[in-house]
Amino acid sequence: MISAVILTKNESDNIADCLKSLNWCSEIVIVDDLSADGTVDVIERLKDEFKKNGTVIRIYKRSLNADFSAQRNFAMSKVNNEWILFIDADERVPELLKDEILKRMNGLSDFAGFFIKRRDYFYNKPLLHGETAGLKFIRLARLNTGLWQGRVHEIWKIKGKTDVFQNHLDHFPHKNVAGFLSKINRYSDYVAQSWKEQGRSISSWQILIYPVIKFINNYIVKLGFLDGVPGLIMAVMMSFHSFLVRGKYLTRYQ
């Protein structure tokens, strides 16, 4: 059986659809970073419905403290099954991926974990190019095969044999430009703080050069222009994120 794990922070608009895509898991563990938008209320309303269908949902409230790995490792300490599936609140497990996972679970022997590909959507359009296209992450693994590492942009480092699922997660990270701006503003705080703890040293010229390189890489080199207006907005926003991280780091910590 599989335990799904979700980290939440003000995800009232996303969490119901995310949970519904996980109703085939026997257990869902949610660690909430003190949400103030009714996220926990949405989860509580769904708990009984899921329990009737054999899925137990448990919620833990815990401050993130800008450390995603610590939050994920805490969640792992609360699961009861051998296999753990980590899903973000803005992700969905489509039927094809669910069927593939369940099929592989029935015939596993020596695998420790699996990479899962992810497809981003923006304004209801799949982004098939740019830096987010073709990304894959270890998201399903056996309990006690490894821990998450890195405060931001964390990685699940496991020991043992791995494989890659053919089907992908659906990812809906930004409903609109305003939401996109809010998210990159928040995450740039986390990244700048992480750089401080690592003792990084950067130069002021990087504020200009790195965002430009980021845009060229996303929009031209990685063919983001083929995704139309959503691809253009994505390239601009990722470039702006690069600017924000460096601007905040230089003005706050250096």
Average of per-residue pLDDT values: 95
- Count up the domains: 2
| Counted beta strands | 11
CATH superfamily of the largest domain: Spore Coat Polysaccharide Biosynthesis Protein SpsA, Chain A
Strand content: 25-35%
Class by helix and strand content? alpha/beta
- Whole-Å distance between the termini? 49 Å
- CATH A-level architecture of the largest domain: Alpha-Beta Complex
**Major sheet characteristics:** 9 strands, mixed
Form type: globular
List keywords for this structure.
alpha/beta, nine-stranded mixed beta sheet, 41% helix, 27% strand
Task: Please describe what this structure looks like.
With 254 residues, this protein is α/β, with parallel strands linked by helices. The protein folds into two domains: 2-174, Spore Coat Polysaccharide Biosynthesis Protein SpsA, Chain A, CATH 3.90.550; 177-252, no CATH class. Helix content is 41%, strand content 27%. Strands 1, 2, 3, 4, 5, 6, 7, 8 and 11 form a nine-stranded mixed beta sheet that branches. Strands 9-10 form a two-stranded antiparallel ribbon. Helix 6 runs antiparallel to helix 7. The mean pLDDT is 95. This is Glycosyltransferase 2-like domain-containing protein. Keywords: Membrane, Transmembrane, Transmembrane helix. Residues 3-127 form the Glycosyltransferase 2-like domain. The chain crosses the membrane at residues 223-245. It comes from Candidatus Gottesmanbacteria bacterium RIFCSPHIGHO2_01_FULL_40_15.
